[in-house]
Amino acid sequence: MNQRSVPKSKILKVALDLFSSNGYSGTKMSEIARDVGISVGAFYLRFKSKQELCLELIKDQTKDFKELTKNLSTKDPLKALNTYITLNLNYAFQKRQLLSIFIREHKLPFIQSLKRDFFKTQHKIIRDILIAGVKKGVFSSMNCKDTASMIFASIRGAILLKLVFRVGNVRDMSKSLFNLITNGIRRGVS
């Protein structure tokens, strides 16, 4: 098969399947090339290294999530926070293969900066929602930076709970997490 005729999406799908089942470290480029149906040489013309392929896979798998979360409106902070939590949980379960790679290969040096950037971006989104909520009197006065970190950690904890222990369903978890968080920060709720 001509390497140019193989869609990038097919290569990324095969890589995702193999990385999530065998791990990044346990997957060889030759296995990916074989499963895609092209020669190893042709494969290396497309991706110079396994690291380059993995970074492209991460970029491909996360691009729409970044767009969805960065465009949340803070006009209604409660709605924005609920939407943010729901988007995170739904997206995580849709992309569980990618998350399994991150869990299994959490020490890969080349993804550390991606993880830091992801945290900073997502932390800012949560913090902006909280600041808007405090300014509008919807949320109690708080340390928005620390609270954003705790909300981020709570969402990640819920995701791990579902992925590792297969507990709960996404809709109920999202609603419960939203209620847990907002009952603690919403003004006038006791």
Provide the residue-averaged pLDDT. 91
Largest β sheet strand count, sense and barrel closure = none
Number of domains: 2
Annotated CATH homologous superfamily of the largest domain = Tetracycline Repressor, domain 2
Helix percentage = over 70%
Radius of gyration, CA atoms, in whole angstroms: 20 Å
Keywords:
190 residues, elongated, mainly alpha
Describe this protein's structure.
There is one protein chain. 75% of the residues lie in helices and 0% in strands. By secondary structure, it is mainly α. It has two domains: 3-48, Arc Repressor Mutant, subunit A; 59-185, Orthogonal Bundle (Tetracycline Repressor, domain 2), CATH 1.10.357. Helix 1 packs across helix 4 (50-70) and helix 5 (77-94) packs antiparallel against helix 7 (109-135).
